[in-house]
Structure formats: C-alpha cells, structure tokens
Design a protein that fits this description.
The complex is a heterodimer of chains A (about 325) and B (about 650). Chain A contains 14 helices and 10 strands. Chain A is of the alpha/beta class and about 325 residues long. In chain B, helix 12 runs antiparallel to helix 13. The chains are: A alpha/beta (about 325), B alpha/beta (about 650). Chain A: This is SUMO-activating enzyme subunit 1A.
Chain lengths: ~325, ~650
C-alpha cells in the first residue's frame, strides 16, 4: 500500500497533529481510507471503536441486532443508561449514535442482520473485521469468509471474561515495513486461520504457553458442545467445564496443571466484562488494527492475553510453523 | 479483582479518589473509574480544551474548545453514569487551596499530569497527607504506571529525574550543528529579541556594522525607527542576522578550524526586489478573522505544513511573518513569548531556523516538524492512554484493598520484551537517601563569597528542589521566606541581593541550611561546601547540588551510563507523559535496550540517570536481573 499522494486537509492536520507525530502523515492517509467492520457491541468493542474513530479511520460499520438490556450497559460507555432511550433499540444503533459524535470525519453506520448470514461478497467491503462475543462456529465461519475475499481482509477476535482478555489476529499473508536502526526493512509474516491455529496439538506448544490460551479453548468448546452463545456460562457449569478440561487434556496429552481449575472457575463465574480490562484489551487491539492498516511496525502474531491477576500482557505465537 | 473478589466492589463504592489531570490519561481514567463503579471522584485540571486534544481526549468535542477540561469531562461522564459524584476544579493543583488537609480527605490520588513540577508537588502532598499515589505517564506507544505508598514503596522522587535538556550558549549563538540548535536560536534569541520584552537579557549580537567599532552609544539594529519602512526594516534584520553576524563569526578563524564554515545569506541574493513587492500586494487582499489566524503562509498562498520550503520560500515567509507581526499584531510586539499555538510565531521561527540551517549546511525541516521541536510537543495517541488508564484502575483497586503484595509498576512497551507488551515489575522500596521521603541532607558546592541568596533560591530551591513557597533558615535565623509578613518583606528582599557569606547570619563552608515549603509541608537540609571556581560550560549554574541528585547535576555524565550498558533498563523512564518538560525529543535518537522493547525510547535522557536492578515478575521463569550501577540502592522484595 502506498499513499496516493493526496494531502491531508488543514482540518485533519490540526485534529490529528499529535498522532501524526507518532505514525506519520502517510499512515494517517491510509487510515482515512480504511473500512472497519465490528460485531458484538460490548465493553471491549466499545473501547476499540472509540479508539479507531478517534484515530480517524474512513468508516466503521457496526453489527449487533441484540436489543439493549441492563446488562449490556455495565461496561459500555456508549449506551446512555436511560431506559427511555435504550429500550427496544439494538446495541448497534445505540452505539452508532454515540460514536458518530466522537469524530465527524468518520462515517459510522449500522448493518442489520445476522453475522453468519453475510456472504463473502459482503466482507469484500472491508479492510478489517473484528468480532467479539461470538460462538466458536461463527468465529471460524467469518474468518474463512474473510480469507476467501480476493483482497486481504484483516480478521480479529476479541473477548474479555472476568479480569482476563484475549485477542486473536489473522493477517493472512502480511508484508510490512519497519525501522531497524536507521534503515527501513521489509518484513513478511504468514498467519494461520483461527481453525488452523486452534488445531495445533497442545503438546507441541512451548511449555510456557499462557494458561489462558488453554482455558479459553476449553470454555469455547464447552459452550459449543452445550449449544450456548459466547459467555453464556455460570458457576453452575463449573463441574461440566472441569470434566471437559480433563478429557481434552487427556486427548491432547497435556498435563492438567497447564489449565488450572481456579482459572476456569474465574472465567465461568463472571459473565460481565471488567471495565479496566476492556480498556486495556480495546487499547491494544486498536493499536494493532492501526498498525495493520498503516503497514507500519511489528504486528501481533497471533494471540495476545492479559490477566489483571498477574498484570502481564503476553503475546503467543500459536501456529504450525513454531511446532 | 472484578466480581471474583466480593470485597472489591465494596472498597470501590466507598472510595473517595482525587484525579489530578483531565487530559489524555485523565479522560480515559475518568471513564474507566466510572464504569468500574467508583462513585466519588474529584478532578483538578487548570487547562482548557484545544483542537489538538480532540484526537484522544474523547470526552471533548469541537464545540468545547476553550472550556475547562475538568468541567466538560465531568459532564460527559455523567451522561453515561448519571448518579455518581464528580467534583471538578478548574484550577492549578499547586494552588494553596489544595493543601495537606484537602489531600487527606481522599483514599487515593491518581496522577495524569503533563509536567514534572506538578508531579513532584503532588508527590510531596501525598507524602505529607499519607495518601497513596498512583502515578502514570505516556509518550507515543510507551507508558507506565507506578504505585507510591509512604514507607512501603519508593516515592515519586526517590529516583532522580533528569533536568530538561539545555544547550551550551555558544552552540546556539555561534556553532549550531543540528536543526534543534537553529530552532532554539530562532525561538529563544531572535523571536524574543524582535517581539518579546526588550528588557530581557539576550545573547544575540545587536550591533550593526556601523556601530561595531564604537563601544559607547551602541545602536541596537533591532529597534525599528518610527518612520522606518517595514519592508526595509525586515530586510535590515534579515541581512544583519543571516549575513552580517555570520561574516562576523567567520572572522574568528579559530572557531572554524575543525568545523564547516557557514555561508552568509543576504536578502538580495535570495530574493529579487520584484518578489518583495509582490509579497506586499498579495497581503492587501487577505483578511484575517482574528489575531491568531494571521498567517504568512496564508498570505503567500502556501498550504501544506508538511512541505519543506526552499531557502527562497523560507526567506519570503520570514519577511512576511515579520511584516505581519508589526502591521497586524503591533500591540503584541514587545510582550510576546513563543507559543506553539500561535501560527504566525511558528511560521516565523520555522523560517528563521531554516535560513540559519541553510547557512550552516544543516538539513531543513517542514513547519509541522519545526513546530514539534519548538513547542516540545510530545507524541500522543488514544490507545496508549486507554491502556494506561486501565492499569491505573487495577492498581487503584489493589491500593484500596491494601493488597500490598500485589502492587506492581507496569510498563507499556512498543516492542515485546520476553513476549510481554505489558510488563509488570515489583515496586521498589523507598530510597533511603531520598531527600524527599527520608531525612538525608543534600550537599551544595557553591562560591559563598560570590553567589547571592537570590541565586540559591532561583537555581536550587525552586529549580532543583521544586519548592514554590520556600523558607530558608540558618540554624534558628530566618534568611528568607516567600510568604513573609509585611514588616519582613523588605529585609528578605535585601537578603536576596546579598552574597551568602555576607548575610546577617553568614552562610559559609560547613553551614547547614534548612529549606522548607510550608504549602508542601516538606523540608530538607543542605550542607554548604565552599568552592572557588566552576566550569562555565559544564556547570553553568555556578553551583553543584549533590547527594540525591548527583547524576542529574553532572551533565558530562549524561550519555555514558546509558550508552555503554546495553543490558540496562530503567524504571525511571517515566516517559514524561504528554509533557511540557521534555525540552527536545530527538526524532532519530533511539536508545538501545536488551531486546529492543523500547522502554527508554523515552526522551533521550529520561532513562539515563537511573540504572538499577530491575526484577521482572514471573511466577515460573527464572528471574531476569537487568544489570544496574546505581550505588547504594539495592532492590529488595517488599515484605
């Protein structure tokens, strides 16, 4: 991607002054031409949307037909808590109204419909697709559709449970430039899809792989097996989750201590997002999307985990190549 | 934490917190605090909203420009959390109303500040009031959060903070080698001379070629005669500073032995007479809405601030900007100080710096870049601030739960270090030789027979010790008090003008001075050591403070510890968040770290003074000890 020589307007230069000093005018131009799609308007996505609308992407499209409930307000600052305002409205519409306000130079709109129903052609309209609170089959389906589009569509999933968060990144075949010492060098990364990454045998992963990676996969599998939506678990499900964990660990020949019961317990106990973690995960994700659009700087490959308990924000590379 | 800790929500709901700063970090923090269930938040910020804030301070809109940050932030957050108490103060945290008693009402204080001075002030008040402080900072993609609890962890000032970068006077006046030197010259000397207070000292040569020979009755070429044509005056200034003064410098052969000789630039060589006339014509059709929209670029039809202008374009901007100052903003001339938000001032300084750079064979810069350097603009993005705000709230909850074992300092990195982008580190114990949170005296080398009390107050007590309302005692005798009773004002004023050794209670080698700030409820002792001579270049203050600050006050050391130790990192790399303090952020200079994680990619020098062992928290890996060299300061685990 090359900037096509169009200049930023005086208005853009004034508004984006401080960030142009970070990533340069050509990155800012690329941002202003990028189209981003998000699904799952909860706290983490609200944070992410705020970040990229402020950064000045070209357009942002929101999908989430769920009707607003009191629970949806808990960590989402985009929805006014007035029952008269939110009652009967979809999450996407409510968030859209707030986001439009943040930056008049960004087109924010709503796409109605079920995420899984959109075809490959639909995803061709976007450069970046981010999904959250999405069931395992839906995640894989959207990821595959993005991969079938002739141009490269960057795909991300993001989820926060309790005080933990996870980001997955698929940039497919990704070339970018970075500064090393005084020169700019070209780099090339090959990403696996979510399906490919999650089928890497656990025993082949490095011993110190984040425990959250395993725990998130167990819960995802549990929700899929039970036919639940993402996050539709409670403490009552703990025995079932622990049973599934033992089965998977046996099947994958992984010592059970890599998936602590206490961690699983935390993840199923609270279905609400923890706002500080939404801010952290939404911030890191925003930064990654900006990197991917501008083609500048090392992108995450391919998982990121944060746990407020130990305070670490860790990158894991889960792909066949590192086996 | 979160809902799995049933008591945490109780601690949050009952907490009364003070936020200092409603800017980049502040907006994010206020939002995250409100969402997390905090119900009683007080917020102090003296600033009003500017356009360049809007890309990250998301609680503010275009329509809010000019209004109080604290008040607008409150109103914005109440829209999504209407039933909580947010009390805004549009005021300076250093105002006397925010005294120790004010601080005592809070369970914790959260800093989202943009300057070292205010950070130190809040640190002292938190120590005096015994209220925990969560401190934070960001620049670009880098950030950090630290926890300061009196007696448990180090205070904000336990590690010396680097002083703003300064340049030797002769580099600026005679031998610039970098663009930044030209900017400093254009801003602090030329701009100040032409448009600032005429009574200020200025190192610019003002003698014209005619007057150079006579030492008496020197005519200042910068003074515009009443009847002098503005075009002519502009060219006279141009020729004097870029032509004559360079010729004068060239005549000193010694200077240029090992340097490239600059080339004098005269307006007639760059601009034909025709062009100069054209300038004037364009302008007459150009109307400006208000004084801050007056622009030489607009008047000359130049639009893109990212363009690098040619020498000719710079010269036209220079003359046009100078002309506009006198014709459109005549009432400002004589009391202007450089302001990065003053378009005409930025244009003038950019052009002047570029012409000087051309003369010295230094590459030219665009207005956009020059503005960043001249205005000490710190890079800032929304995402880093959001991440840092999340980390602040996590630490705040631990502080409210008194969960000392879990306190962490956390770095937000640009490049992963040991797979980590967010790296938690155990906090340090208080530094026993810290003059702020321990009682360790400082030592001052000074010429007691030559230096005045005034010099000590300005250069040490205010600039180095960060006191606002100081009081100085020699044993039981008061020498000076900023906030004095009426009958003492004259006596203290007289003392300020006295040489130390000649004060009513003489200060000589061996004297122990007591210095206190009543507002900060903070004091320290200074041992005086008499010394005759100081190196003008290396010790421009004519005095050297040591003890706690020894690394800081030794500028000749500045690059050594950092450059020779690739494996070191620093927890003092507070990337002076959105800071006005970082004098110059060198765009190309990047410090090297073990794994390029970028911690000290902070303003050159932020990290340089402080190298200790840094222990990375890890429950299963071997601890990584990054080597350090700071004496007398060993990391120990908190107990």
């Amino acid at each position: 991607m090359e900037g096509n020589g169009e200049e930023l307007t005086a208005q853009e230069t004034a508004l984006y002054d401080r960030q142009i000093r970070v990533w340069g005018a050509d990155a800012q131009r690329r941002l202003s031409k990028a189209h981003v799609l998000v699904y799952g308007m909860k706290g983490t996505i609200a944070e992410f949307c705020k970040n990229i609308v402020l950064a000045g992407v070209g357009s942002l499209t929101l999908i989430d037909d769920r009707i607003a409930s009191e629970e949806a307000l808990s960590s989402n600052f985009l929805i006014p808590p007035d029952h008269n305002v939110y009652a009967g409205n979809t999450l996407a519409h409510l968030c859209c109204d707030s986001l439009k306000d943040f930056n008049p130079m960004v087109r924010v709109s709503v796409q109605n419909g079920d995420l899984s129903s959109f075809d490959v052609e639909f995803f061709n309209n976007f450069d970046v697709v981010v999904v959250s609170s999405c069931s395992l089959p839906a995640k894989k389906l959207v990821n595959e559709k993005c991969r079938k589009v002739s141009k490269r569509v960057a795909f991300y999933t993001v989820d926060c449970r309790d005080s933990c968060g996870e980001i997955f990144v698929d940039l497919q075949d990704y070339k970018y430039s970075k500064k090393k010492l005084e020169e700019t060098i070209e780099c090339h990364l090959q990403y696996p899809s979510f399906e490919e990454a999650s089928s890497v045998p656990w025993k082949e992963l490095p011993r110190k792989t984040s425990k959250l990676y395993f725990a998130m996969r167990v819960i995802e599998k549990f929700e899929e097996a039970e036919g639940r939506g993402a996050g539709e678990v409670s403490i009552a499900d703990l025995p079932g989750v622990l049973k599934l964990k033992r089965e998977i660990c046996a099947e994958q020949s992984l010592n059970e201590s890599h998936v602590p019961d206490t961690l699983l317990e935390r993840l199923v106990t609270s279905t609400l997002e923890f706002p500080p973690v939404c801010a952290i995960i939404g911030g890191i994700l925003g930064q990654e999307v900006i990197k991917a659009i501008s083609g500048k700087g090392d992108p995450l490959k391919n998982f990121f985990f944060f746990d407020a308990f130990d305070g670490k924000g860790i990158i894991e590379n889960i792909s066949n190549s590192n086996a | 934490m979160a809902s799995s800790h049933p008591h945490s929500s109780e601690a949050i709901r009952g907490a009364k917190v003070l936020m200092v700063g409603a800017g980049g970090i502040g907006c994010e923090l206020l939002k995250t605090l409100a969402l997390s269930g905090f119900r009683d938040i007080h917020i102090i910020d003296m600033d009003t909203i500017e356009v360049s804030n809007l890309n990250r301070q998301f609680l503010f809109r275009q329509s809010h420009v000019g209004q109080s940050k604290a008040k607008v932030a409150r109103d914005a957050v109440l829209k999504f959390r209407p039933h909580i108490n947010i009390k805004p103060y549009h005021a300076n945290v250093k105002d006397p109303e925010f005294d120790v008693d004010f601080f005592k009402q809070f369970n914790v204080v959260l800093n989202g500040l943009d300057n070292l001075d205010a950070r130190r002030h809040v640190n002292r008040l938190c120590l005096a009031a015994n209220v925990p402080l969560v401190e934070s900072g960001t620049t670009g993609f880098l950030g950090q959060v630290t926890v300061h609890v009196k007696g448990k962890t180090e205070c904000y000032e336990c590690q010396p903070k680097p002083a703003p970068k300064t340049y030797p006077v002769c580099t600026i006046t005679s031998t610039p080698s970098k663009f930044v030197h030209c900017i400093v010259w254009a801003k602090d000397l030329l701009f100040a001379k032409l448009f600032g207070d005429k009574n200020q000292d200025n190192d610019l040569n003002v003698r014209s070629s005619d007057a150079a020979s006579s030492s008496e009755n020197v005519e200042d070429v910068f003074v515009r005669r009443n009847d002098e044509d503005i075009e002519q005056y502009g060219r006279k200034i141009f020729d004097h500073v870029f032509g004559y003064n360079i010729e004068l410098a060239l005549s000193n052969e010694e200077t240029w032995k090992n340097r490239n000789r600059p080339k004098p630039i005269y307006s007639k060589d760059v601009l034909s007479d025709e062009l100069a006339k054209l300038n004037g014509n364009i302008d007459k059709n150009c109307a400006f809405d208000d004084e801050f929209s007056v622009s030489a670029m607009a008047s000359l039809g130049m639009k893109n601030p990212q363009d690098i202008w040619s020498l000719k374009e710079n010269s036209r901007i220079f003359l046009e900007a100078l002309r506009l100052f006198f014709t459109q903003r005549g009432k400002d001339v004589g009391n202007l100080t450089f302001d990065k938000d003053d378009q005409l001032a930025v244009e003038f300084v950019t052009a002047a710096a570029n012409i000087r750079a051309a003369s010295f064979g230094i590459p030219l810069y665009s207005l956009f870049e020059a503005k960043g350097i001249a205005g000490n603009i710190v890079h800032a993005v929304a995402t880093t601030n959001a991440v840092i705000a999340g980390l602040i709230v996590i630490e705040t909850i631990k502080v409210l739960q008194n969960d000392i074992e879990s306190y962490r300092m956390t770095y937000c990195l640009e490049h992963p270090s040991r797979k980590m982008l967010l790296m938690p580190v155990e906090p340090f114990e208080p530094n026993k030789s810290c003059y702020v949170c321990s009682e360790t005296p400082l030592t001052l080398e000074i010429n007691t027979k030559r230096s005045k009390l005034k010099d000590f107050v300005e250069k040490i007590v205010k600039a180095k010790l960060g006191m606002n309302l100081p009081l100085i005692m020699n044993s039981s005798n008061l020498l000076y008090e900023a906030d004095a009773e009426d009958d003492m004002v004259a006596i203290y004023a007289a003392n300020l003008e006295k040489v130390l050794a000649e004060l009513p209670s003489p200060v000589t080698g061996g004297t122990m001075l007591r210095v206190e700030d009543m507002h900060q409820e903070f004091g320290c002792n200074v041992n005086i050591k008499h010394r005759e001579e100081f190196d003008e270049e290396k010790e421009p203050d004519g005095m050297v403070l040591s003890g706690w600050t020894k690394h800081v006050s030794a500028p000749e050391n500045k690059d050594k510890p950092a450059a020779n130790n690739g494996a070191s990192t620093s927890e003092a790399s507070v990337p002076a968040a959105e800071s006005d303090e970082v004098t110059i952020v060198s765009p190309s200079k990047k410090r090297k770290l073990t794994d390029d994680s970028g911690i000290p990619n902070a303003p050159a020098g932020e990290a340089r003074n402080h190298q200790d062992e840094l222990q990375v928290i890890d429950d299963e890996d071997d601890l990584v000890m990054l080597e350090g060299s700071m004496e007398g300061f060993k990391k120990r685990k908190l107990s």
